[in-house]
Design a protein that fits this description.
The complex is a heterodimer of chains A (258) and B (390). By secondary structure, chain A is α/β, with parallel strands linked by helices. Chain A contains nine helices and ten strands. Chain A has a single domain (3-257), classed as P-loop containing nucleotide triphosphate hydrolases (Rossmann fold, 3-Layer(aba) Sandwich), CATH 3.40.50.300. Chain A has helices at 18-24, 57-64, 86-92, 108-118, 123-136, 152-163, 182-197, 209-215, 240-257, and strands at residues 3-15, 30-42, 46-50, 72-77, 80-81, 93-96, 170-174, 201-206, 218-223, 226-232. In chain A, the strands form two sheets. Chain A has a six-stranded mixed β-sheet with strand order 6-7-8-3-9-10, sandwiched between helices. A four-stranded antiparallel β-sheet of chain A has the order 2-1-4-5, with helices on one face. In chain A, helix 8 packs across helix 9. The chains are: A alpha/beta (258), B mainly alpha (390).
């Protein structure tokens, strides 16, 4: 198996403002969001990061996407290091998270072209990819409607299409089915499986067990910034219920330790 | 370069394709300035042209009438003759502010003119009414001339001191240039700044706040290209906005200074090209400053709060054009951004002989500042602390 994304012992600490300290009810100014995290995602697999809110999933994914830099450790994406070659990493990945938004004033059509050009995609490939992705997610019906006028679900679809427009080798999706109705969520998960079969490497974060159980090949459980377990879905028991039990046991033992 | 153009085009479309924004950035400033200045001009003209006065004269004389009725005086006042018995009535009217002036000449003043004769003319006006006071001043002047004329009839010319005044002929071009130089530099800097302020914070702080900047930051585009594309498009858009304001003020000039004064034709293509060059180099410094502050701000609101004091500071620098005689002669002052624009504009508008040197220093300094600001903006775009602070 070819390793596509290698996360090597990354740590990320935030300095909390006084206001944030109050909100989170902590005395310590420093908050360790990711603590010595390591895992590898291979070509042609879907790796699921499972964890409760605030576990460090999003921070880990933002480090992979180069939006933020880890304090220590490194991440190699498709042969590029996030520390020394962040542009190479950005060229290789498609990233989706709720932090990334599209400008409400423009239409999906305009934004698709805009981001495609910024990614250096040629005009004829833009046309082809747009047709393909807009059809896949049913965006062609509202391609000329301003993003601001779209529903959350429609907007999410446009965001997914734009994140994949350059046909990236690595796809990093933070909670990809959040805010989507069951039908659209299925379109997304089916498409991720399709991409996996094409040989893409996919990392998703989620707190929905059924998503992990249905589409992921391997799962990593992350709690308090630490990866407590990495195993294949079969090793985890193969069913949603088994996965859930295992997860709650880990949460319980982790909070006892804390 | 291609990416810079792509970003430029998107920022451009954001304003040009948004009818509301286009109206508020490109049309409204010029329109508002035209309306405000035209209104100010009309108000000033009506202030400087007094209403016709009401004057009642007892025993009017031919000699006095010939003075105030001279064609040069363009007398539009309502002058009537009244009988001595009517004086108390008109005095009451003057007290009530309904009449302006009463002049009472002794009877037959001109036929009684003999050596040693002294006549007293009684004047009554209302010192509390500005119109009555103005009319009094004017007619007091006519009475002085009339007194001299009477004296001349009696004793011939008794003047012992004559004046012969020597002065340079007035250089109208220079005079008009000086007027322009007190007014325009401040307005130009204000227009440039307010134009940039209308779109700059939205394009950087707004995008940061809404998360659309992050979408741009996950593309492989270099941060420096994002900075250049944004500053370039904001600069051009702000310049267009400033030109709109400029057209507004130019078209309101006839109302402000009178139809017959043509300020625009005193300058040639050379001067206009220099003004445009100055504006072009300045707008990027202004946009650079606004972009850096907007990138630093956590949200749009904070950007507005942080930019306001800088705006006030530029206005104060702009006001410096009102004080001082012409352009500053020390070359190193032209290294200070904004101040150098104001001073160079003064130099262009007053036909300063050193303008080429001032222009060169100003444009070079502005270019260096713009480059430094873009470098700073690039660093800020690279800083996760700044870009993702909540």
């Amino acid at each position: 198996m070819e390793a596509q994304v290698i996360i090597k012992d990354i740590t990320k600490t935030y300095i909390l403002s006084k206001k944030q300290q109050k909100i989170e009810r902590v005395k310590d100014k420093r908050k360790v969001a990711v603590n010595g995290l390591s895992f590898t995602a291979y070509k042609g697999e879907i790796y699921g990061l499972l964890g409760p809110n605030g576990a460090g999933k999003t921070t880990a994914l933002r480090c992979i996407s180069t939006l933020i830099k880890p304090d220590s450790g490194d991440i190699i994406v498709n042969g590029h290091s996030v520390i020394t070659d962040p542009e190479g990493v950005r060229q290789s990945i498609g990233f989706l998270t709720s932090d990334l938004q599209l400008e409400a004033f423009f239409t999906p059509n305009y934004l698709f072209d805009y981001f495609a050009r910024l990614r250096g995609v040629t005009e004829d490939i833009i046309k082809e990819r747009k047709k393909q992705l807009f059809e896949k997610f049913g965006i062609d019906r509202f391609a000329e409607v301003k993003v601001g006028e779209l529903s959350t679900g429609m907007r999410q679809k446009v965001q997914i299409a734009i994140s994949l427009l350059h046909d990236p080798a690595v796809i990093v999706f933070d909670e990809p089915t959040n805010g989507l109705d069951v039908l659209t969520a299925k379109v997304v998960t089916d498409y991720l499986t399709e991409l996996k079969n094409e040989g893409k490497t996919i990392i998703i974060s989620t707190h929905i067990f059924s998503v992990v159980e249905k589409i992921c090949d391997r799962v990593g459980i992350i709690i308090n910034g630490k990866l407590l377990l990495t195993e294949t879905i079969d090793e985890a028991g193969g069913t949603e219920a088994n996965l859930e039990n295992q997860f709650f046991e880990l949460v319980a033992s982790e909070s006892e330790e804390a | 370069m291609k990416n810079v153009l792509t970003i430029f085009k998107k920022e451009w479309d954001r304003v040009i394709k948004d009818k509301r924004l286009l109206f508020s950035v490109m049309i409204l400033p010029g329109l508002m300035i035209f309306i405000i200045y035209s209104f100010m001009g009309t108000a000033m003209t009506s202030l400087s042209a007094p209403d016709p006065g009401n004057i009642a004269i007892v025993n009017p004389t031919e000699g006095f009438t010939s003075i105030y009725a001279l064609p040069d005086n363009e007398n539009i006042d309502n002058i009537i003759t009244i009988a001595a018995s009517e004086i108390p009535t008109y005095m009451t009217l003057v007290d009530q502010g309904e009449w302006d002036l009463i002049i009472v000449f002794p009877a037959n003043i001109e036929s009684n003119l003999v050596d040693g004769y002294q006549a007293t003319a009684d004047i009554y006006y209302n010192g509390n009414e500005s119109q009555s006071q103005t009319i009094y001043q004017v007619y007091r002047g006519y009475l002085d001339i009339y007194g001299k004329a009477l004296s001349y009839q009696l004793y011939e010319d008794t003047t012992v001191l004559l004046y012969n005044v020597g002065t340079q002929p007035i250089d109208e071009k220079k005079l008009m240039g000086t007027i322009m130089a007190t007014l325009l530099p401040m307005l130009v800097v204000m227009f440039l700044f307010s134009g940039a302020m209308a779109i700059g914070p939205e394009s950087i702080a707004g995008e940061k706040e809404r998360g659309t900047m992050a979408t741009l930051l996950v593309t492989p585009v270099k941060r420096s290209q994002i900075a250049m594309g944004k500053v370039a498009s904001l600069g051009v858009l702000s310049l267009l906005s400033a030109i709109s304001s400029f057209i507004g003020i130019i078209t309101s000039f006839p109302k402000l200074f009178g139809e017959d004064i043509d300020f625009l034709s005193i300058y040639g293509i050379g001067e206009y090209a220099m003004i445009l060059g100055l504006l072009f180099s300045t707008v990027f410094v202004i946009v650079g400053v606004i972009s850096v502050v907007s990138a630093y701000a956590k949200n749009l609101k904070e950007a507005g709060t942080l930019i306001t004091p800088i705006y006030l500071l530029t206005i104060i620098i702009g006001i410096s054009s009102i004080f001082g005689e012409g352009a500053n002669a020390s070359w190193w002052f032209y290294l200070i951004p904004i101040y150098n624009t104001v001073q160079s504009l003064i130099a262009v508008l007053t036909f300063d002989p050193n303008i080429t040197m001032y222009m060169m220093i100003t444009v070079m300094a502005n270019l260096v500042f713009t480059a430094l600001l873009i470098v700073l903006l690039n660093r800020m775009f690279n800083s996760e602390k700044i870009m993702f602070s909540k």
